[in-house]
Specification:
The chain is mainly alpha-helical. The protein has helices at residues 3-27, 33-40, 44-53, 61-83, 89-111, 121-140.
Length: 144
């Protein structure tokens, strides 16, 4: 993999992670466990300033609850494609498929009440769509 492509993948991965994380930190309810962690690290006041400065912004449910999942899967896929050489096709496919499939499985476990949470078909779409796009790109590049 070229240095330019590696750097591009890392920047795109970090961007997806940052945007998805920002949505959670700024717009999700304060009852999430991560806000207790922020308090433990002494950064709650900083987080609250950002939340207050954007309190006028309203996000629809898809952006608030499902899009971060898709962004995190996309970030993961950029990293996997960066660190695993394309000549190791089986290992690359294993790691590309693992997190999205675990995520889809967890959604269906929620649907059947085997796992706490609420099934959301939009979450499933956000897990699968980046995977499909990634596989199409790898097929086009003749990696797989």
């Amino acid at each position: 993999m070229t240095t330019t492509k590696t750097l591009t993948n890392l920047i795109l991965s970090g961007s997806c992670l940052f945007v998805g994380g920002s949505i959670y930190i700024i717009f999700r309810p304060l009852t999430l466990n991560m806000f207790r962690w922020f308090d433990a690290f002494g950064i709650s006041s900083l987080i609250n300033k950002y939340r207050e400065s954007l309190s006028y912004v309203s996000l629809n449910d898809f952006v608030l609850y499902s899009l971060p999942d898709g962004l995190w899967i996309t970030s993961y896929l950029f990293i996997v494609n960066t660190i695993i050489p394309s000549k190791h096709k089986k290992e690359l496919l294993f790691w590309i498929l693992s997190l999205p499939m675990i995520s889809v499985l967890s959604e269906f476990m929620q649907y059947y009440n085997f796992m706490q949470g609420r099934f959301d078909i939009y979450d499933v779409v956000c897990y699968v769509l980046p995977l499909i796009i990634n596989l199409i790109i790898l097929k086009y590049e003749k990696v797989i």
